[in-house]
Specification:
41% of the residues lie in helices and 11% in strands. With 217 residues, the chain is of the alpha/beta class. The chain folds into 2 domains: 5-16 and 86-215, Rossmann fold, CATH 3.40.50; 18-78. It has a 6-stranded parallel sheet with strand order 3-2-1-4-5-6, with helices on both faces. Strand 4 (161-165), helix 8 and strand 5 (181-184) form a beta-alpha-beta unit. The N and C termini lie close together (11 Å).
């Protein structure tokens, strides 16, 4: 019997990237005469999507939404990745899951190029057989297109797949294909999730393998 495929969200699930995001947004704000913004302020906004994140962070200093987003992402791509942004026990847990035989991939709404760059900088990239970003297909999560794309790329069926994430967006993406959703309580949007959409949840990555074994029947 084929092993399950594990699909991981990125920001708020594998990494706490709020510091880098806040730094990029602070640069944009600074160029427009505004003060810096902190990671604690932006962290709850990240699960809302990049458009809403940038609009909220810029506030009255926002201009054209598309140009603001492009400016933010250009700055973000130039900033060095913080090696300490990986959540505790992620590396050890991914290696344990790989040894067990799970195939693993990333499905995120961060642009694919930025996602691959971040994973490479953090020495996580080789652990994933595929990376689908928010611009890999014409639509981002929770639209069915990214899930459909990654399932096809991995030649996986929904019943062989588990999605691990931290937000209602991830839960909705899983629900469309009846894929079990495991919620990381330490992420950005856990409080937004409908309990009916959650097959299981975990507060520490060291607890994830046991949870997966219970769900992967």
């Amino acid at each position: 019997m084929r092993r399950h495929v594990l699909l991981f969200d990125l920001d708020g699930t594998l990494v706490d990237s709020a510091g880098g995001i806040a730094a990029a947004l602070s640069r944009v704000r600074g160029e427009r005469g505004a003060g810096p913004i902190t990671a604690d302020i932006v962290r709850p906004w990240i699960s809302l999507g990049a458009d809403a994140l940038v609009a909220r962070a810029l506030g009255e200093h926002a201009r054209d939404p598309a140009a603001d987003l492009a400016c933010f992402r250009a700055i973000l791509s130039e900033l060095p990745s913080d090696p300490d942004c990986v959540y505790p026990d992620v590396v050890e847990t991914l290696d344990r899951l790989a040894r067990t035989g799970f195939a693993m991939a990333v499905i995120t709404n961060k642009p694919e190029r930025l996602s691959r760059g971040l994973l490479a900088d953090l020495n996580l990239g080789e652990r994933f057989v595929e990376v689908v970003g928010g611009d890999t297909t014409a639509h981002a999560k929770p639209h069915p297109a990214p899930m459909r794309h990654i399932l096809a790329a991995l030649d996986a069926q929904p019943e062989q797949t588990i999605l691990i994430g931290d937000s209602a967006v991830d839960a909705a993406a899983a629900r469309v294909f009846a894929v079990p959703f495991l919620l990381f309580d330490g992420g950005y949007g856990a409080g937004e999730c409908d309990p009916a959409d959650v097959a299981g949840h975990f507060a520490a990555f060291r607890d994830l393998p046991a949870l997966i074994e219970r769900v992967a029947v």
